[in-house]
Amino acid sequence: MARAAVLGAGSWGTTLALVLHENEHDVLMWEFDREQLEAVIRDRENKKFLPGVAVPGEIGITDDLAAALAGADAVIFAVPSHVVRSVAKRAREGIPAGTLVVNVAKGIENETLARMSEVLTSELERPGASGIASLVGPSHAEEVSRRLPTTVVAAAVAEETAVATRDLFMTDYLRVYTNTDLVGVELAGSLKNVIAIAAGICDGLGYGDNTKGALLTRGLAEITRLGVAMEGLPETFAGLSGMGDLITTCISKHSRNRHVGEAIASGMTLAQVLDSMVMVAEGVRTTKSAVELGRRHGIELPITEKMYEVLFEDRNPREAIRQLMQREPKPETIGRRG
Predict the structure, then answer these.
(1) What are the structural domain ranges in the chain?
(2) Rounded mean pLDDT of 70-77?
(3) Please, are residues 175 and 151 in contact by the beta-carbon 8 Å criterion?
C-alpha cells in the first residue's frame, strides 16, 4: 500500500483518487477551493464536477498542501495545465527527490511552450524528468469513475518510472500501458484537444460523418507532423494517447473541448462559452501554444491555425471550414507538408 497525494479535486482528480483507493492505497486529496472542499466532505460526493459518484469516507480531503504531501510515496498533479507551475512551486519543498510524481493534465504552457513534465522538471528540480510520469489516454472521468473499461498510457523517460505508475493505477477496468516516449505522449494528448474543438464546430454546423472522418484523419496527420518535428516517435501518435484519445475526445458527449466548438458554431463568443462552463477546456489555451510551436518548428498546421482564427480573431466558423476545403491540392501525407 502506498500513500498517495492527489492535488486537485476536479472530476479527474476525484476519479483517480477513487482508483487509488480501490487499489488499497492511502489517499489524501488536496483542493485549494475551500467551498468545494467542504461540499465534498459534507456530501461525500463531488456534485460540482462528478455528480452521482460516491466518495468513500476513507479518502481524505484537505486544503493544507503540506499536510497532503507529508509522507506521500506518489504525488498526482490533477490540476489544470495553466496552474501546474504555480502548484509545483508551492509543493516543491514537500516532495522529496525519491517521490513518484505523476502529471495527468493535458496542455502546453502559453508563456514557455513547455509540456507538463518539463514544467515539473523545472519547478521540482528533477534533472532529466527523473521520477516524473504522465498518465494520459482516452479516459473521460465520467466513465472511469463508473468502472467502464478504459485504457491509458503511463509515459516516462525511464521505464521503471512508467512501470511504477502503471502498477499504482492498474485495475480490472483501467488497463495501463507503458511508454518511454514522454515527448510524443504528452504532445499527442495535448494537441488532440485543438482538433476536438474543430470537431465540435463541425457538429454545431450540422456537418456529417464524412466531415468528421476527414477531420480526425487530417487532424492526426497534423498532430503527428508537429510531434515528430519535436522528437516524438511517429508510432506514438497512432496509439492510445494519439489516435485513441483523438477519436474519443472528438465524438464524446463528455468532451469539454468538443462542447466549446459546438457552442461557438451556435453563435456564442468564446468568452460566453468559457463563462458558462464549470470545467476547464484545455484545448483553448493549447491552440495558442500549438500555433506558436508550429511556427517555431516550421510545421504547417492548417486546422490548428483556423481554430486559432475562430477562437481569437473572430473568424466565422463556416468560413474557416470553407477555407480549409479550398486549400491548394496536394498528395496525402503525414510528413512535413500539410
Answers:
(1) 3-180, 191-325
(2) 97
(3) yes
Identical topology for domains 3-180 and 191-325: no
| Whether 192 is catalytic | yes
Q: Domain 191-325 falls in which CATH fold?
A: N-(1-d-carboxylethyl)-l-norvaline Dehydrogenase; domain 2 (1.10.1040)
For Cα atoms 283, 142, 2, give the angle at the middle one, nearest 5 degrees: 95
Q: Does position 338 have pLDDT exceeding 90, yes or no?
A: no
Determine contact, residues 29/60, Cβ cutoff 8 Å: yes
DSSP secondary structure of 233-295 = -GGGGGSIIIIIHHHHHHH-TT-HHHHHHHHHHTT--HHHHHHH-SS--HHHHHHHHHHHHHH
Average pLDDT over residues 32-43: 94
- Amino acid symbol at 321: I
| Single pTM value for the model | 0.95
3-180: CATH class: alpha beta
Which residue among 48, 192, 288, 306 is the active-site one? 192
